[in-house]
Amino acid sequence: MLNKRVYLDGVVIIINDFNINTPLIFDIKQDSPFIKLHFEIEGKIDFQPGNSNDISITIEDGQYNFFYLPVVDGVLNWQSGNRKSVEIECSENFIRKIFKNDFYKISGLFGNALREKTAFKMWEKGEKIPKVLNNVLDKIIKNSQEKETDLLYWESEIIKIFLYMFSKINDRKEINSLVYLSGTEQEQIAKVEKTLQNNIQNSITVEELALKIGMNRYKLNRNFKHVYGEPIFHYLTRLRMEKAKAMLTQKNMNISEIAYEVGYKNPQHFTVAFKKYFGYVPSKLK
To answer: Which residue pairs, CB below 8 angstroms and at least 24 apart, start in 131-135?
Structure first.
């Protein structure tokens, strides 16, 4: 049985893995806004609002959905049987922090719902969890069983999920018609992402990545941005900067050593990149 909550700044991550003998019914009321990204890996949940004008939410086995409710008033049902889920409840400020000044440009229909304080859900019915996100969820569940909680790791994984999800949020029909990734292509992009994770210290080119998975450079760039919501080297820069920040706050290393660990041979180039990314120089953390 697993029931764990991890608290970050503006986020609560809930990991469930247990068996329910009989269906459970909960009356839920909340006056404050509720934003949630819900992955129902096994099982089924169903929320029916008290007001027929509000939205209902049903997420079945192997599905996920993202939704916003200005207020919550209704009945939540859990079906009996095995239930395995990863649920991410977050504040509006957390999402704004990810996308900064581009929030309303990127948030699309969700951003409109926030402005107008109207209910929103990403899909009318739950969407099948893609393989790319399944890999991330597997790591989250495995990590949740560790005794020590690495908050920087958790934040990095949650940001990764939101980048993927927001890449699909604007005009969903148009996006899906423009870029469709087969199961093989999703696995190829996941392989590229893992390669980037393993090469934070090393230089690597798009050509090398493309050759590694057998895909041309243009298609690789397009598919990676479609899945992760940003270009390949923006993503790699973010990995490097987040790792550098963690090392600056947690390890007794000088800036030159940290620069080398995250792929910068010249400490000055690292300092410039760090300031451009965070808005302050790395020595401020030291």
So the answer is: 131/183, 131/186, 131/187, 131/190, 132/164, 132/186, 132/189, 132/190, 132/193, 132/227, 133/39, 133/64, 133/161, 133/164, 135/190
Phi, psi at residue 33, to the nearest 5°?
Answer: -60, 150
Point out the residues of the chain with pLDDT beneath 50. Answer: 171-178
pLDDT in tens, 186-230: 889 889 999 998 999 998 889 899 999 999 888 898 888 877 777
Q: Report the distance separating Cα 63 and Cα 45, nearest Å.
A: 10
Please say which residue of 85, 103, 134 terminates a domain: 134
Question: Is 17 within the bounds of a domain?
Answer: yes
Is there a domain that residue 159 lies in?
no
Q: What distance in Å separates the CA atoms of residue 152 and residue 247, rounded to the nearest whole number?
A: 11
Q: Residue 255 falls within a domain, yes or no? A: yes
End-to-end CA distance of the chain: 41
Q: Are strands 127-128 and 120-121 parallel, antiparallel or unpaired?
A: unpaired
- Residue 38 in any domain: the answer is yes
Q: Where in the sequence is the domain holding 96, given as residue range(s)?
A: 2-134
* pLDDT tens digits along 260-276: 999 999 999 999 999 88
pLDDT at 106: 76
Residue 7: count of CB within 10 angstroms of its CB: 11
